[in-house]
Write a structure and sequence with these properties.
Blueprint lengths: L3 H27 L4 H37 L8 H33 L3 H31 L4
Helix pairs in contact: 1-2, 1-4, 2-3, 2-4, 3-4
The structure holds protoporphyrin IX containing FE.
Protoporphyrin IX containing FE binds next to α1, α2, α3 and α4.
Length: 150
Amino acid sequence: MITPLSIHAILANFWVGGMFFAYWVLRPAVENLALAEKINLWAQVLQKFFSWVWLISFSLPVTGYWMVFHELGGFQNVGIHIHVMHIMGWIMILLFLYVYFSPFKKLLWLTKEKLYPEAGLYMVKIRRIVLINLLLGVVVSTLATVGPFL
Ligand code: HEM
């Protein structure tokens, strides 16, 4: 059924699942490729994935606030797990915006200029922040699900 909660949960799964796939599946699988090939691949993969993350970063707060204010009676009536999700959700979104506008934009430019070793340095930065967001996303999603039963 299409409800704000189902849209919210599906998009959260796409985001966390996408980061899990990138970090723990694709990264080790392409580790032995030549640097130029690897950087070009990651530039394209991240470009496509980040387009989804833009949509998700917009939709999670919209559906989240919709539920809080239209269904749950405002922040004064929700459990601590929703407050934690709210704060951690914004930290994840701000980290994404930083990655997108700083290391990712530089990665794209350096890849276009074929400066692969320099681009690799920004890849490392992106990877670290994606790992932080992955861990935050796992905690937030788990807390969102088990929170009401604590
Ligand atoms: C940015 C601000 C956010 C707000 C205001 C928000 C708010 C909410 C609210 C009100 C619910 C419904 C809870 C209930 O009915 O008991 C919910 C559910 C959920 N949220 Fe968030 N959320 C936010 C961000 C996130 C993020 C970043 C993630 C994960 C990446 C996430 C994952 C989930 C999941 C998986 C559920 C479904 C839990 C379940 O019922 O099993 N949320 N959220």
